[in-house]
Design goal:
125 residues, mainly alpha, elongated
Length: 125
């Protein structure tokens, strides 16, 4: 199925905005269509994406951000953390009790749905 042709005025208007360096989202806003429609229009004519000019970022900030991202990614690899480091003594006690009940219930029913168990456990406790 082919797309309907644009009116010559519409084609000229889009091309004029594109040549002015406007990005797809701004052209779409001016013309009154979606960004995707402009993207398809541009692709069908073999036109590259107009990139917005941005200031160069400060290298220190970039390095700080990338080291933070690395630390966050490294933290995701941690499989366990001692409960005592993140919970109060009272919370540890409650968590131990819950885990004991969960392990016992799982032994009784290996097909146990843990999410459902937690919902029911919250109602009882």
């Amino acid at each position: 199925m082919s797309r309907p042709k644009l009116a010559p005025e519409e084609e000229q208007k889009r091309m004029r905005l594109y040549r002015q360096g406007m990005p797809d989202d701004k052209i779409a806003e001016v013309v009154g269509v979606t960004r995707r429609a402009i993207c398809l229009w541009r692709h069908s004519r073999g036109l590259p994406l107009n990139r917005k000019r941005t200031k160069r970022t400060n290298r220190k900030k970039v390095n700080k951000r990338s080291s933070l991202v690395k630390r966050i990614r490294a933290d995701r690899r941690i499989k366990s953390v001692p409960m005592e480091t993140v919970l109060s003594p009272e919370q540890c006690s409650v968590m131990r009790q819950f885990m004991t009940h969960l392990v016992f219930a799982k032994k009784l029913n290996p097909e146990l749905n843990v999410g459902q168990f937690m919902k029911e456990y919250r109602k009882v406790m």
